[in-house]
């Protein structure tokens, strides 16, 4: 389908969901919020897509809610408030329960609500010119959902500093990697999308069923204590027993060929 605020493409077994409002630093308006739900779902349901890369056109990755729209259209803030109260935001992969691997490829500025997409990705790559900031308190808003989620990835004090200092400080890509917010810094920045595609292609060589079960187990562990998490992970492990990929993996290894994974 066609989108006004996004580009959704496929490169082999890799689906690309790209923010495409570069003129406003990819700020998320109502149209983008609606299209994100559709785009994530489209790529999740595509049997040819095994990995999803979330990236951006222009000089910024994502700058969160379109503050100008919120301030002027009369319905933006109310609509957003209702979606939060109902816990039905549905614009990131985690909120929609996407079980395909998701890579966020961050360039330029990632601010405010843009941190949702970093917190909810499975792997984050950052261009060397990337910078992260959370201006919520600087515009009279509460920093909560994104920063709470970020505490799964990085030390709590670093998250507190980002949330409390607001727009008056930015975290560079190198520091973000030191703190565990991103796993790799790409230099020069122009290589970011190629690096994301290369990593996605490596992941896509693996069993789709095993990838999905692994992702559910690891994310589920964040919701439980150690024992409950291990029990839930064990259920995912045994749930894959008998799946064709379990026989195909060893057979392909023994025969020194690429596996032929079951994709449905």
Automatic annotation (TrEMBL):
Compositionally biased intervals (Basic and acidic residues): 254-264
Region (Disordered): 244-264
One Pfam family recorded for the sequence: ECH_1
Highest taxon of source: Bacteria
Cross-referenced InterPro entries: ClpP/crotonase-like_dom_sf (IPR029045), Enoyl-CoA_hydra/iso (IPR001753), Enoyl-CoA_hydra_C (IPR014748), Enoyl-CoA_Hydratase/Isomerase (IPR051683)
Homology family: Belongs to the enoyl-CoA hydratase/isomerase family.
PANTHER family for this protein: ENOYL-COA HYDRATASE, POLYKETIDE BIOSYNTHESIS ENOYL-COA HYDRATASE PKSH-RELATED
UniProt protein name: Enoyl-CoA hydratase/isomerase family protein
Gene source species: Actinocorallia aurantiaca
